Amino acid sequence: MPSSADHGLAQRKQRWVDLMDPTKPPSLVYLIDYNPDPAPLPQWCPDRTQERIDWAMREYERQVEQMTWLRDDTIPCLDPRTGTEIIAAAFGCPVSRPDDNMPFARPLISQPSEVGQVPEPTLDAPSLAQLFEIGDALRRRAGPDAVMKLVDVQTPMDNAALIWDKNTFYTGILDAPEAVRALADKVCRLFYAFYDEWFRRYGAEFIAHYPSYYMASGMTVSEDEVGVVSTDMFREFFLPELVEISQRYGRLGMHCCANARHQWAGFKQIPNLCLLNL
Question: How confident is the model at residue 36, as a pLDDT?
C-alpha cells in the first residue's frame, strides 16, 4: 500500500486549515465521494468488533490508494463508525439496531423524578469500552500517523434528549428545569471524560464525525434539538455548554440538521466556531 504522505497529504491538510482560518482569503475544498464498489457495512452489534475493525481498515486502505489518482481534498481516515447511541447506551438506554440503518438509543426515563435514579457510567461502559478497543486496534494496524475519524458526538443536551423521552423532555425544560440540568450535567461529565481520553489516545487531529471534514485540533458536535426550542431556551440550556465545549477544546465545528434559522444569532455567540454544517 503506498504511503499517503507520498500523495500530497500535508497539502490537503493545509487547505482545510486555511479554509477555517478567518485571516486567510476565502477558499474552496473538494470532497469527491467516489466508491463504485463499496464493501458491505458491518453489523453494529456488540459481538462484531472484529468485523468493524476489518471494515475500517479496508476503507482506509481504499482511501489511501485513491489518493494516488483522485486529486480532491479527502483525508484518509480510520472510521470507527457509530450511530448516535453511544453515550445514551452507556447510561443504560436500550439500543435498536435495524438492518438497514445505524443504531439508535431508545429512552430510559420519562419523568423528572427519574433523573436521580440514572447512574453515572464510567469509561468501562460496554458501548464506550468497545470504541476504545476498536480505536486501539486500528491505530496498531495503521500506525501512529493515520488520522482517526471521531465517533458520533451529540452534545450533552442532545444526549439528555435521547435518554429522556422527548414527549416529556421538552415540557420538562419548562416544568422541571433543574431536573433537565441535572441530567445534562451527568452527561457532560461522561462526555468530557470520554472525549478527553479519545484525544489523549489518538491525537488532536481528526476527521469530523459528520460531515467528513479535517480538523487539526478542536471538537465537532451535532446540535440537533435546538430547532424546537425558543431562542430564550437556547441561550439558557444549550448555548452555555456549546461555549464551554469550544473553550475546552479550542475551537468548534458544528452540525445542525434542525430547522434552526431562529438560532443563528445564538450560534454567532459561540467562540471559535470555525465551521457550521446546516
Answer: 92
Question: Which residues does residue 277 pair with via DSSP β-bridges, in sequence order?
Answer: 255
pTM for the model: 0.95
pLDDT in tens, 230-262: 999 999 999 999 999 999 999 999 999 999 999
Q: What is the C-alpha to C-alpha distance for residues 120 and 138, in angstroms, rounded to an integer? A: 28
Asked whether the beta carbons of 80 and 56 are under 8 A apart, the reply is: yes
The full 3-state SS of 206-220, as one line of letters, equals EECCCCCCEECCCEE
3-state secondary structure of 258: coil
Would the pLDDT of 113 be above 80? yes
Q: What pLDDT was estimated at residue 6?
A: 52
Closest CA to 160 of 110, 227, 194, 101: 110
Q: Answer for the pair 85, 127: CB distance below 8 angstroms, yes or no.
A: yes
φ/ψ (deg, to 5) at 62 = -65, -45
Q: Is 203 exposed, middle or buried (0-12, 13-18, 19+ CB in 10 A)?
A: middle
Mean pLDDT of 189-204: 98
Q: Which grid cell is 9?
A: 497529504
Q: Which residues pair with 109 in a beta bridge?
A: 164
d(CA 132, CA 251): 24
**Dist. CA 71–CA 11, nearest whole Å:** 11
In contact, 146 and 139? CB cutoff 8 Å: yes
Amino acid at 141: R
DSSP state of 45: -
**pLDDT tens readout for residues 121-146:** 999 999 999 999 999 999 999 999 99
> Which residue's C-alpha cell is 420538562?
172
Give CA–CA dist 2/183, Å, rounded: 48
Residue 111 cell numbers, joined: 419523568
